[in-house]
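Field: sequence (string)
Field: structure_tokens (string)

Example rows 1 and 2, in order.
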Amino acid sequence: MKKLFLALLVVLLAIFLTACGEDDYEEVLPEEPPVETPAPTSEPDVDDEEEIVPFVPTGFMGIGEAARNMTRAEIISFIPDFTPQGEIVLGSWDRAAADARVSELVGGHFLATMASNMDREFFPNPMVTREIDIRDNTDGSRTYTFTIYTENRFSDGTLIDASHYVADIALFSGIFEIVGHDDWVTGEADTLAGVRLYDDQTFSVTIDAQWLPFIWENITYMMWTPTPLHIIAPGAAIADNGDGVFVEGLAVPIIDIAPTLTVGAGPYRLVSSDTASPRITLEVNPYFASTWDGYAPRIQTIIISQMDRSALVDAVAAGEVDMLSGLGSGDAINAAFARLEGTTHSAIDYPRHGYNLLRFHVDHGPTQFASVRQAISWMIDRDMLVQELLQGHGAIVQGPYSLSMWWYPYALQRGFYNRIIHYNFNPDRAIEVLEANGWVLNSAGEPFELGVDIVRYKDVSIYTELAWFGGYGISDPSINADGLMRLEIRWARPADGVHDHLSNQLFRDLESIGMLLTIFPTENIPLRMARAGGAAPEFHMFDLGYNLGLTYSPWEQLNPDPVFLGSHNTTFTRDENLFALADSLRTMSIDDVYDRMDFVDAWAELMIELNHQAIEIPLFADIHYCFIPHRLQDWRMNSTWNFSEAIVRAYVTQ
């Protein structure tokens, strides 16, 4: 048995990448002209200087890293008395991102059993967790027993105890690795056997042996948040009969219970949400005591104002909006620099913890052939995208990674860069890979002649089966009666102008190598990509942006098990080698992360195989900017330490 008494359990997830070597990807940032500072001709006039008067006690900067080894009472004792004041209006163009920030600030994020710092080191949250006891059982399973403080409260004043954490696990966690999870969610079992509630302070979670070891266990299996069961299911309660936990007193089926933000455990509470504006208003939760590092919220009101991306900079310049966060469009960034930076606002840049990509369905049509996917990769002018779309505020990537990942520079040092295919615009190379794979015919079955014939074909009658439904002639409109497959790509992309740079270039250049591209402006691409409800394949290629989580383990995304197809595995790949590489990464122990290079090498092997198979085409990883007003002080933010973490530790001046 191992005990974890608020001791450090570190996984370094993100180190801010600030420089690259000569052979590395280059971050292209806007050039600033040198500034000549003239010698002063007289002493400054003190009366002309603007005095900045904070609303909070002078020198209040939280506790910081020392708080990890403190008790909840000790942390609170360091926080001086003050009254939160001021207001910040955040301009947002992405409703999903705005909703995520609201959920973090209002929900249970800040009272999770585990916490993290700006370097994404994870450790028990000293404001919540007294102790975590880890026991390896004789059957190979592992039990995590949590003892928590019971002095924290929801925004309605209700005390938070262990049952509120168990409620969140039983109702919403979706962690299938918990013992008894499948029987619980299907209703075959009356209890969730792997979760126990012992008293108001103590609960445990047991993970099935088949899912151990797991490289990110300290986040996935040890980070739990509270949910206000008394609000979402009045009259219900969490009970434990000795065989596991269950919910008693429910008036509706469990599946009908939904999370809520009307009452939460975060530093802010939801005051109003105007869908017409749309405008979301948050105010300080008076019952929130402190973040793990000794910060109580100092800004009284946060307003998130939703508007069109093109109107953001004008709104800030007019004083309708105070700040912008996560700005990633080249036009918008340059406009913000021209009108805001250095005058009323300061700019903070950081690599986005994500990337943009084209994702393929690899189980039907031409894109089930790697040669076609590689040919499209060779026909994308990524330099053009970075310069025209991002206007230099980003970099080309050749895999599903971000420049903010701590392991990326280590992988470069160990030769990763020299082992991947560096796709960029090369029509000759695209034609070469197509012809090598048999795309050498026209619609009549005669040799394809570039400049005469419009589209290439491939004879697929020689295959006993193709990927989808085991027969090339079944429901695949790209195959004619003679068994020839037409090289036509059906592309679902958002119906906005942001993607016009890429679609215009591809539409023009793919035709020059004998490939047709049919573009379908599409709403709700994730549902179409997932083929929700068992829908038949409709498209071959999808355009989307992807934000990476705190961990990287694509085990579910590459899992060929039918239960994951569509829900997680949205390329529908069934490649055994890819899954084996993902599985080897997932099943590394957390000690391997400490060793670092074992993890880096395993990650690099997976990236290389993904790069060669091209089941998706990573396009670029952009640089994001945050434009903050000068009156907003103590602002700290990076790729994974986001707006929510920064705003709760910041303050405004008069």
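Row 2 begins here:
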Amino acid sequence: MRVRGDRHSSGKRERGSGSLRTYSGVGPAEEAQESTVSFARPDRLAEALEPAQRAQAIALTLHSRMMPASFDFTGRTALITGGAGDIGGAVARRLIDSGAKVATLDLRAASLEGVLALSGDVSRSEDVDAAVSRVQAELGPLDIAVSAAGVGGESLPTTEVGDEEWRRVFEINCHGVFFTNRAAARVMIPRGYGRIVNVASVAGKEGNPMAAAYSASKAAVIGMTKSIGKDLAQTGVLVNCVTPAVIQTRMLDGLSEEHVAYMVERIPMRRVGLPDEVAALITFLASEECSFSTAAAFDISGGRATY
């Protein structure tokens, strides 16, 4: 195995009234990206989130000192859906830094240097198929597919979830993952090699209140991963998924403070995760070093779920 030193992030933390603000730099040539998670200050939320803020500060300090080793992806080609998002973008940066040729597919083109940024809707199979064809034509045979596109859905009681909202969440979170897996498998199987990684959620294992559509769609991703992984087990194409707990991404902006507090309260490490922490796990699953794991769900939840 060849690994090489890599600088991925440095961080600092500012704390204001009712907010947790972090700045995660990617490298010396890139500007820090700001992400803010704001919380209300009722007693119950304050009690739940004060330990989380302290734990988050410690985690960011430690994370800024890490010099993570990156796998050597020289000669490999990757397609990342949701590449303009926080987790997808973090995966793209790691793969680029490790020598891969990377394309992203998102509704808005990713603004990452060194990527083939494609615009498209993962809920439309024709958009996904076209993206795979273009990647193969412009970058070379597809080796890695990461399905990171997703939406959180609205925080609503089950009785208030409308048909349109239910379908919208499933079309992106479930159908989009299937279309990406199918398109990638079709070109990977004839070559006898491939790595597919899907981003599910701990909500797909345990279910979150006020999130029936999201929880169900992510449970579908876990089941889909297990099924497709077994279908492809003897082809050289490995299919796995990751099941993060709440991660500090822009997806949190659409959730209620109570919803966020509920999720943080159930994490033994008492903090949200960082996109680059999820990206580190995905990078391993996308590498040749992942050779005897397929059809599996890999937990990254700060101890919330361990099965």
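free_text_note (row 2): The helical segments are 43-65, 86-97, 125-138, 163-188, 203-206, 212-231, 257-265, 275-285.
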